[in-house]
Specification:
Blueprint: E1 2-7, H1 15-24, E2 29-35, H2 40-49, H3 61-70, E3 79-82, H4 90-98, E4 102-105, H5 113-124, E5 130-132, H6 140-150, E6 157-165, H7 179-184, H8 187-190, H9 195-211, E7 215-223, E8 234-241, E9 246-252, E10 263-268, E11 271-276, E12 282-287, E13 293-296, H10 304-308, H11 320-339, H12 354-372, E14 378-379
Parallel strand pairs: 1-2, 1-3, 3-4, 4-5, 6-9
Antiparallel strand pairs: 6-10, 7-8, 7-14, 8-9, 10-11, 11-12, 12-13
């Protein structure tokens, strides 16, 4: 069992509880320590609520890393889950990696691309492992879609569409007592992007993951719809991809009535596919010359990657928490295999990491620059 520590995610936080549920689902982690808030009293209260020993609850991430490092190797935390707002990702991740702790980090990876590149260098110089929680790649049918494209069954990819519509910021929520809206729309805490950083990075990651292609050029239309908002809350991006394919990415937080219905479509020479989170157990495969197939989670015909990430019999919904847990599970299986001197399986190694994090930050900076530019197409630079 991997001994886990958490930085952030204390009382009043949203994503911390999601990470804890995900880590606990397969019994591969045990939460043993934490610095749950920059306020030491809140951190202590959060740790008490979670049933942790008082001497393993710390007032800062610096104290956590320093004190845990002094414990015997068979007692100290082995991995740190970092679930703070964007501007507080870099410092604890860098310190953790420098001290040999594995890191599971919420996305987007950092506040800026420069910070992301620095973390990439720190990781390369360490013996630690790194996982970035791009949740939607954890769904079994998303993995099935990726394997289907990679197999060549659809032929060369020609067109990719990805969209992430939300409606929760249709009003000026940051003007009320909404903690999530307050930091996600604040450039001093979120970075240079709003919707494109918060959910656009998910869409970008999903597009590259499923298609197996890399964005090479883009043309972005970035909007701030709600009066008084400091960051973008809506946008659409035309994309050119490696191999000659083209794509469209839409991310908006002002689509009133929408929840989190992430959707991806990939079209090749011979057929296409479609997956959406509202029906996450289903992958539609559409052929040029024969009827559409409906592939389902839990069926015996799906790939080893989809099977590996499925927990329940066919017909039982596997949702957001399970997809999130698949990232934690695969990361744990990778760590356990390496601790035992074994090579992790390809299925276990299938989780987002540093490269995805750097490309996600490059997406943010490129898409905002394109949105501000009068040039139609700009190069995607990392």
């Amino acid at each position: 069992m991997i001994r886990l520590g958490m930085i952030g995610g204390g009382q009043g936080a949203f994503i911390g509880a999601v990470h804890r549920h995900a880590a606990a689902l397969d019994g591969l982690y045990k939460l043993v320590a934490g610095a749950f808030s920059s306020n030491p009293e809140t951190s202590r209260a959060s740790g008490q609520q979670l049933g942790l020993s008082a001497d393993r609850v710390y007032g800062s991430f610096q104290e956590l890393i320093e004190r845990e490092k002094q414990l015997p190797e068979n007692e100290r935390v082995q991995a740190l889950s970092i679930v703070t707002p964007n501007h507080l990702h870099f410092a604890p991740t860098k310190l953790a990696l420098e001290n040999g702790f594995h890191v599971i980090l919420d996305k987007p990876m950092t506040f800026s691309l420069a910070e992301a590149k620095e973390l990439q260098a720190v990781l390369a110089a360490s013996n630690a492992r790194f996982c970035l929680t791009h949740t939607y790649t954890g769904y079994p049918m998303v993995k099935e879609a990726r394997q289907l494209v990679a197999s060549g069954a659809l032929g060369a990819v020609r067109k990719v569409y990805v969209e992430y519509p939300q409606g929760w910021l249709s009003n000026f929520e940051e003007g009320s007592d909404n903690k999530q809206a307050a930091w996600r729309t604040d450039p001093s805490r979120s970075g240079i992007a709003g919707a494109m950083g918060d959910i656009g990075t998910h869409a970008f990651n999903l597009l590259e993951y499923v298609s197996g292609l890399a964005v090479t050029q883009l043309c972005a239309d970035i909007n701030t719809v709600v009066a008084g908002r400091q960051l973008d809350d809506d946008g659409a991006v035309l994309l050119r991809l490696s191999g000659g394919a083209s794509g469209v990415l839409i991310a908006t937080q002002v689509a009133a009535g929408e929840e989190n219905n992430v959707r991806v479509r990939v079209y090749g020479e011979k057929g296409g596919l479609e997956w959406q989170q509202a029906d996450a157990n289903t992958l539609q495969v559409k052929w040029l010359d024969r009827p559409t197939e409906i592939r389902r989670t839990g069926a015996g015909y799906v790939s080893s990657y989809a099977q590996h990430n499925t927990r329940t019999p066919a017909g039982h919904p596997e949702g957001y928490l399970e997809a999130f847990a698949n990232l934690y599970r695969n990361f744990a299986l990778t760590l356990q295999a390496e601790q035992a001197g074994q090579t992790p399986t390809p299925e276990a190694l299938d989780f987002p990491g540093m490269e995805e994090g750097v490309r996600g930050m490059a997406f943010i900076e490129n898409v905002i620059a394109s949105g501000r530019s009068t040039q139609k197409w700009t190069e995607f630079t990392v």
